[in-house]
Design a protein that fits this description.
Helices cover about 25% and strands about 30% of the residues. By secondary structure, the chain is an alpha/beta fold. About 30% of the residues are buried. Bound molecules: phosphoribosyl ATP (PRT) and zinc ion.
Length: about 280
C-alpha cells in the first residue's frame, strides 16, 4: 500500500484527482474525508493543505505527494521530484507599482518586499548581491504596496490579471513551477513497484495529451509526400482501398499542428479526413 498526499481543496485538487482517474485509479470523492482508499489500486489518498505536503512526505507519513514545485522549493524538505505533471503551471515573480522607474534588480536594494516565499526570494537576492527587507505575509500579498506594507511583492503569477488589477507590474520572473509528484525515496520494493506502475501510466497519459489520431483517403501517388507531412511515431499505417489507386492512411498528429497538416494533406489530394481523440498511447 502506498499513501499519496494531495491538496484537499484549492487549485491543484481537481487536476490531481483528474490525473489519477485518467490513469485508471478510481477515487471516491463522495466519501472524501481525510483518508480514502482507491478501490482498484493499492493507493491511499491523504487530503491536506498544500503547504504541509512536502513535510508529510519527507517525514514518511505519506510516501508520495502531489504539490506545486514552488512549495517543494520553499519548504526545503528532503524529497525527490519523481515526475512533472504538466498542470498547475505558474511562476513566482517580482512586481513593482506600475509607475515605478524600474531599471533592473538593483532597484530592490533597501526596499521592502512582501512575499509568502521568503526562502526562494532570499536565495535570488543573494545571487543578485542585493540587500532588501523581506516582509513575510500569507495571503493577499498583492495588496501590500497599496497598504504601504511593502514597496514591491514577490508572488505567484499565472495570467498576470491579479497584478494588473492591483496596479502592479511584473519585472522579474524568478521561479517557474508546475505540479509535481514527489517521493521520500524510502519505498519498499513492493511500494516501488506500485510507483513504477503509476509512473508508466502517467507517462502514457502525458504522451497522448495534445495528440490526435488522423485518418484519410489518399491517392497512392501521394503516399510518399503524405509520409513526409505526417512522420508518425514509427511510420504511418497505410492500407489499400477497394478503389484502384487509393489507400487509407492513419497517423498521430500534435494538436497544435493539426490545421496546418490538414491544409498540406488536402493540397496533395487527401479526402475524407477524420480526426479522432486518443485515449491512451502506450509507447
Ligand atoms: O488551502 P491550501 O493551502 O491548500 O491552498 P493555497 O491557497 O495555499 O494554494 P492554491 O490552491 O491557491 O494554489 C495551490 C498551488 O497552485 C500553488 O502552490 C501553485 O503551485 C499553483 N498555482 C498555479 C497557483 C496559481 N497558479 C495562481 N495563480 N497558486 C496561486 N495562484 C494565485 C496567486 O497567488 C495570485 O493571487 O492566483 C493569483 C494570480 O493569478 P493570476 O492569474 O491573476 O496571475
Ligand atoms: Zn497553501
Amino acid at each position: 500500500m502506498l499513501r499519496l498526499a494531495i491538496q484537499s481543496k484549492g487549485r491543484l485538487n481537481e487536476e490531481s484527482t483528474a490525473l489519477l482517474r485518467e490513469i485508471g485509479i478510481d477515487i471516491d470523492d463522495s466519501r472524501r474525508k481525510f483518508l480514502s482508499q482507491a478501490p482498484n489500486f493499492p493507493l491511499e489518498l491523504l487530503y491536506m493543505r498544500d503547504d504541509d505536503i512536502p513535510q508529510v512526505v519527507a517525514s514518511g507519513t505519506a510516501a508520495l505527494g502531489i504539490v506545486g514545485l514552488n512549495e517543494v522549493e520553499e519548504r526545503g524538505f528532503d524529497v525527490q521530484v519523481v515526475a512533472k505533471l504538466g498542470f498547475g503551471g505558474c511562476r513566482i515573480s517580482l512586481a513593482v507599482p506600475k509607475g515605478a522607474d524600474y531599471g533592473g534588480p538593483q532597484w530592490f536594494a533597501g526596499k521592502r518586499i512582501a512575499t509568502s516565499y521568503p526562502r526562494i526570494l532570499k536565495r535570488w537576492l543573494q545571487e543578485q548581491g542585493i540587500e532588501a527587507r523581506i516582509e513575510v505575509i500569507t495571503g493577499s500579498v498583492e495588496i501590500a504596496p497599496a497598504a504601504d506594507i511593502a514597496d514591491a511583492i514577490f508572488d505567484i503569477v499565472s495570467s498576470g490579471g491579479t497584478l494588473v488589477s492591483n496596479g502592479l507590474r511584473e519585472v522579474e520572473k524568478v521561479f517557474f513551477s508546475e505540479a509535481v509528484l514527489i517521493s521520500n525515496g524510502q519505498l519498499t520494493p513492493d511500494q516501488q513497484q506500485v510507483l513504477d506502475e503509476m509512473l508508466f501510466r502517467i507517462g502514457s497519459a502525458q504522451v497522448s495529451r495534445h495528440k490526435k489520431y488522423i485518418l484519410m483517403n489518399l491517392p497512392q501517388a501521394a503516399v510518399e509526400e503524405a509520409t513526409r507531412i505526417l512522420p508518425a511515431m514509427r511510420s504511418p499505417t497505410i492500407m489499400p482501398l477497394a478503389a484502384e489507386g487509393w489507400c487509407s492512411m492513419h497517423s498521430v498528429v500534435e494538436e497544435a499542428d493539426l490545421w496546418d497538416k490538414i491544409r498540406q494533406l488536402k493540397a496533395i489530394g487527401a479526402e475524407g479526413i477524420l480526426v479522432l481523440n486518443i485515449d491512451k498511447i502506450i509507447p
